[in-house]
Amino acid sequence: MRTFLTIMLVFLIVSIPLLTSCTVSSAEYNKNLNETVEDLNDAKAVLAQAEFDSINDYNTFKVSFKFKLGENQKVLNNLKLDIDSNDKAVRAIENSEISKLEKRNATLKYKIENYELISTQKWEISKETFNNELDDLRSSISSMAVYDK
């Protein structure tokens, strides 16, 4: 019996301070709740603005990118018209190279038109990839133009 009373006494000594310290006034609770709701609303507003900025960046990039692809196509059309070799084999090779470049240009156009904007991080990576592919295509077109002259 003595052990039981000792255990109960220790239990009460430990539990009474714990129980009394766990109470939070309703005013403090409401204040914390309001602050949390405000923080959540601020975070939602920041997220909405980030999504809006990302969509605007994507749309601006898309218009610019398609314009550059159109310029590429004009250069390729001019290259086709400028082929003036008398040798049929050389003309066939040049036409084949121009056709390959046109296919690459069309593929890039298809990719940008069908790109689905999923997240900002993925867009940044895709944007860099698009730019690298476009730069590579433009350098190939420039090489072809120099070779053709």
UniProtKB/TrEMBL annotation:
Highest taxon in the source lineage: Bacteria
Protein name according to UniProt: Lipoprotein
